[in-house]
What we know:
This protein has 11 helices and 12 strands. The chain is an alpha+beta fold. It is 31% helix and 20% strand. β10 (280-288) and β11 (293-299) form a beta hairpin. It has 4 domains: 16-116, no CATH class; 123-199, GMP Synthetase, Chain A, domain 3 (2-Layer Sandwich); 224-267, no CATH class; 268-322. The chain has helices at residues 16-19, 91-99, 118-144, 176-186, 197-204, 215-218, 228-233, 240-243, 258-264, 311-322, 357-381, and strands at residues 46-50, 56-60, 72-76, 81-88, 112-115, 150-156, 162-168, 189-194, 275-277, 280-288, 293-299, 302-310. α3 (118-144) crosses α4 (176-186).
Amino acid sequence: MSRGCRCSPNIQERCLNVFKHSSSKMDATDWLKNIKGPQVNCFTDFIEVRFKNSRKDFFRTSPEMDLREGDIVAVEANPGHDIGIVTLTGHAVKLQMRSKKVNPDAVEIKKVYRKAKTSDIEKWIAAVNEEKNTMFKSREMALNLKLDMKISDVEYQGDKTKAIFYYTADERVDFRELIKVLAEKFGVRIEMKQIGMRQEASRLGGIGSCGRELCCASWINHFRSVSTSAARLQQLSLNPQKLAGQCSKLKCCINYENDIYIDALEDIPDSSIQLKTKKGFANHQKTDVMKKLMWYILSENDERNLVMITAKRAKEIIEMNKKGIFPLSLDEKVSEEEKPKAKLNFTDSSDEDSLTRFDNSAQQKKKRRKKNKNRNNNNNQQ
């Protein structure tokens, strides 16, 4: 089942091994399953069915079928029928249709024919096993026709009457001749579908620079656009080799922390503002957004004058400059010139480090005790 499911389909009564996998991004969780109530447990004539890769769709059904999650079903297709796996049933399907803005009353919604028979599943398995060989042969045909395109995946319909060829291309490709050659070679109806570089990476899979499986292959279903402004906002170096993923586009994970940085930058002043001090102008160099620290340099030609201050201190200096006040230094600590000169009191500390200072004090204590004892004895005799 390629990326949607990590193993080939098997003929089983419930086909649970095909339906549930820890790394299948097409699995669905019915969070209303254990909630009892008339609205939740009532029958709905819609189910959600998934196919290969990231293809999912909604179908009409009837109460006589008694379909559950994990059942393999034969659904209406154009032409013939297709084989898919039920991922969601019950009232949660209507909520899912509402979130994806699918009209339940639309005529375009196709219906479920029946539960898949053993013969249907056998034919489906045979079609899935031929997809890889078909992809390699179609690549050779496209190369012979000198077409600037890359066929990245092939998906056979469940009854093997139709095949979808997914391809990527930089420019528009005239593949009319290719369709004729493919239809003659494989004897099925051909459909060409162009996909982006991100969708291709999600189908091929791989390991990212973080050492984990690609997010697009493991859990991302919908791709958000990633811009270089998000990288600048997070103080990332605009190095294409580090920011680009396997798809040669900006990594999707750049968007993960973007909202946090937007909130954190509200407490940090504009870095384009120069700070004026009595020693000269200070220009911004870099910022640690999360720690709210800013680095300024007093002279562009001398990196030794790099000073680190807090964002709060930078705001204070900006407000002081607006009032015409110029601090002596950027640092919050008082400089040596601003410290008041105090009178120096010298004391003789020559005996403080003497090795016998503790011995002398012990002898003096003994003498005091002896004097006090003699004094008490004289008083008693009198």
